[in-house]
Amino acid sequence: MADVFQATVEKLAVQVNQQVQRVRETYDAVNAIESTVTSADGTISVTVGPQGQVRAIDLNARVYRKLAATELAAAIMEQINRATTDVTERRRRLMEPLMPEGLRYDQVFGENVTLDAFLPPPVDPDA
């Protein structure tokens, strides 16, 4: 009986170690995500890191002759949004396989996250 128990514990330990390694690899991959997008005319490039932080904005000198200040600001924001969307989607694809059964990625990392995803339903005292 003790041998069966020991074998079960060892098997579970191997599975846990495999999961931990998978999580570590995914974490490293998520932290390495970076997205650089460039406007169609090639005048604006934006690089965004894994948490959506803007890491670089490169402007070609021609952009100052083409766009007014408000147009330039809008064009930069458009590139930031494109890069952020790309990073978010790549992060989702990496993380989704690690999500517990019954828990969706957007429930944990989406825009409108609430505690509801982590808490059991309310208990009805009259039941």
Automatic annotation (TrEMBL):
Keywords: DNA-binding. InterPro entries: YbaB-like_sf (IPR036894), YbaB/EbfC (IPR004401). This is DNA-binding protein YbaB. GO terms for molecular function: DNA binding. It comes from the Bacteria. Signal peptide: none annotated.
